[in-house]
Amino acid sequence: MDFILLIIIGFTGTFIGTIAGGGGLISMPSMLLIGVPIHSAIAANKFSNTISSFSSFFVLLRQKKIHVKTALFVSPVAILGGMTGGLIATSLSEKSMTIIAILLLGVALLVSFIKKPKEELNTVDKVPLKVYPLLYTITIYDGMFGPGQATLQMYTYLQNGFSYLSSIALTRFVTFLSCFSAFITYLLNGHIKWEIALFLALGSFIGAQVAVRVAGKLSKKLLIGILKTVTILLMIQLTINLLI
């Protein structure tokens, strides 16, 4: 196994995934192309996302882009969703989950064009309760497969008054919890290959650290443009995967 290639895959996927989501559509196919078994690839991806997501969240927490209590409010939903997704990963086909992902991304993109986000607030103490069912659905999907889940979360928080960096912070925290929960189920089922997961995680950690620092220097207009572009590319890639 080419460990340098795994580091590059981890870096690229997480850098893009941190800023706009969709990193899974880079890392997952790349690992499959170099011969990593599907369940081992998902397990390694969950492990690396656990490490990188918490590291990027911690940076933004120290920069006071998010409050601890804001993140803690969504913790139960993220943990339950990740565990649920991990447990039912073998119950639904990849085709079914791909169709769901395309529909969810399409709705999120449409809403971003026709519905003006709430005025950006300086401090958001908690995520509105009405958003929790959607977050639970997203974290279930993340636990099962995941490409596009971070993008969906970003739209959700932006539409409810969070700043872009706060949305990144909360997305990374929820991703950390759901991926950790899902990873445990893969670990208990013997799917983890540490010689793959550790090098992928190293690249992901570096990618996450670079991404949160780059995002802080870009304008919100540019970041929103990147988010929408990634969403469209995700939908195209998922559709191609569905048709092949």
From TrEMBL:
- Keyword check for Membrane, yes or no: yes
Pfam name, any one: TauE
PANTHER family in alphabetical order: MEMBRANE TRANSPORTER PROTEIN YFCA-RELATED (PTHR30269:SF0), TRANSMEMBRANE PROTEIN YFCA (PTHR30269)
Bilayer topology reads: Multi-pass membrane protein
Species this protein is from: Bacillus suaedaesalsae
Q: Tell me its family.
A: Belongs to the 4-toluene sulfonate uptake permease (TSUP) (TC 2.A.102) family.
Q: What is this protein called?
A: Probable membrane transporter protein
Subcellular localization: Cell membrane
> Superkingdom, according to UniProt?
Bacteria
Q: What are the alphabetically sorted keywords of the record? A: Cell membrane, Membrane, Transmembrane, Transmembrane helix, Transport
Give TM segment ranges: 6-26, 71-90, 96-114, 164-189, 196-216, 222-243
